[in-house]
Amino acid sequence: MKPIAIQLYTVRDLCAQDFKGTVKKIAEIGYKGIEIGGTNGMTPKEFRAFTDDLGIAICSGHGGMPTPETVDEIVDQCRTLGARFVVSGVGPGDVNTMDGVKATAAKFQAAAEVLKPSGLKFVFHNHWWEFLKVDGKVPYDIIMDLAPDAFSELDVYWAAFGGGDPAAVLKEHGKRVPLLHVKDGPLTGDPPDPHTAVGQGKVDMPAVFAAADPKVVEWAIVELDFCKTDMMQAVVDSYTYLTSNGLAAGNR
To answer: pLDDT digit string (tens) for 139-156?
Structure first.
């Protein structure tokens, strides 16, 4: 089983009220790691000391695209935080034409190349728009083909919402999917309807995890963008579902 983490975007409203208390609660639930989008005003060294005290790892950081101008700062931060994956992504307008898809792939490949000397991996996070066909082809597949040094943080819910089959995606591209974004929901709505706790929606999670390459996937990262129920309860329920069903490993 792979360790379970959470993207702190899930509990962003609670973090805005009490950041340290919220992260402490995440650790108490049993999550082994967090994916971050910043350090909440702390220096990377201070943030690392805070998470080390809680016994929780920083598995990855979601932010801007690495460039020759920003790579040194990104690498220094990641090394201090202990994160091995640099995550970024694009908006729907970037992949709704074939030219846009190719340009996006070029950006991802360039980001991967600039990080390569450091040993860090560039990983792109998808939404549903990478799975909406352009000229009869799936942008996600084209990006994986044209950006061979980039890795995928596959968001299994958004892949399904966009018309893809996340288990099939993992069977095809699993050698380059070290991170799973695990979310669930009704797979309905325009805009999308609220998510549910993992295991309470329509995504076939056992099939997803069975298709993932156990030698490649390093983290199962829960992320809920919005939820009808109490968010912290959904965070607890997601943890309970994944760990009690043997899909991911926690600290409890």
So the answer is: 999 999 999 999 999 999
The CA distance from 156 to 137, in Å, is 19
The domain tally of the chain equals 1
pLDDT digits (tens, 9 = 90+) for 155-175: 999 999 999 999 999 999 999
pLDDT at 109 over 90: yes
Instruction: Name the residue range of residue 170's domain.
Output: 2-249
- For the entire predicted model, the pTM comes to 0.96
**Cβ atoms within 10 Å of 136's Cβ, excluding its own:** 6
What CATH number has the domain bearing residue 49?
Answer: 3.20.20.150
Q: Residue 208 is encoded by which pair of tokens?
A: 């997803």
SS (H, E, C) the chain: CEEEEEEHHHHHHHHHHCHHHHHHHHHHHCCCEEEECCCCCCCHHHHHHHHHHHCCEEEEEECCCCCCCCHHHHHHHHHHHCCCEEEECCCHHHCCCHHHHHHHHHHHHHHHHHHHHHCCEEEEECCCHHHCCECCECHHHHHHHHCCCCEEEEEHHHHHHCCCCHHHHHHHHHHHCCEEEECECCCCECCECCEECCCCCCCCHHHHHHHCCCCCCCEEEECCCCECCCHHHHHHHHHHHHHHCCCEECCC
**Would you place residue 25 in the very low, low, confident or very high pLDDT band (cuts 50, 70, 90)?**
very high
Residue 78 near residue 70 (C-beta atoms within 8 A): no
Euclidean distance between CA atoms 121 and 86, whole angstroms: 6
- State the sign of the Cα–Cα–Cα–Cα dihedral 55, 56, 59, 63: negative
Residues shown for the chain = 252
